[in-house]
Design brief:
two-stranded antiparallel sheet; mainly alpha; globular; three-stranded mixed beta sheet
Amino acid sequence: MNPLNPILIILASALLSACATSPLGRSQLLMQSESGLATAATQEYDQMKKETPVSKNKALTAYVQCVVRPLTSEVVGDWEVTLFESEQANAFALPGGKIGVYTGMLSVANNQDRLAAVVGHEIAHVLSHHANERASAATLANIGLVVVGIAANSRNQSNQLAVAALGLGVQYGIIMPYSRTHESEADLLGLDIMAKAGFNPAEAPKLWEVMKSGKKESIPEWMSTHPSEDSRIQALQDRQGEALSLMQAAHAAGKHPNCVMPK
């Protein structure tokens, strides 16, 4: 029996059963269990709360919750937000409705609209099932490398180098572009979410201007898991017309977020 047959049958079955579409209309391959990802993410989140100090600043915590609440009201599910005490300028959202914001992010996203842009972006990753898609892409890449290894059926140096080169190609040709696509998609969907909640979408590209000015060095975009700041700023600016219309509709519906960061 050809050793490739079982692998190819499994792969074909997975591909046929895992097709999906992202909220922005992009075709996706989702091979993982969403409930399984949510369970794992919740466990990781709970572990983080044990290992990373949770902010005891009640005023800052209330401010972050004030910004997050209108955003999560625009999407499905129950969401939990935690403010972590850390200097890193970062935030995240996980499957299962878990949001984390680091206090260091508040010095960069220094008003309600910029913080809404950050958190909206992270929520968009969850809504778009990007964690599932990345895990699925990695699974397919691993299967592909196994198939190539079996097909080569040789231990000579040239074949080993070819398989190693394919691994590098998978990293820069598949996994990283997927990540850049996800980041770009989350920027745009996050912009829509913040605008629908009544926040000012014009602050989103301004946030990335701040991020760009504070960045000490950059690497070529094709070697990065994220698009360049210039690419992100341009894409967000290009979508401003639509986003501003969403904000105006939100304001007409009485949605006026008013969160003031404590000094």
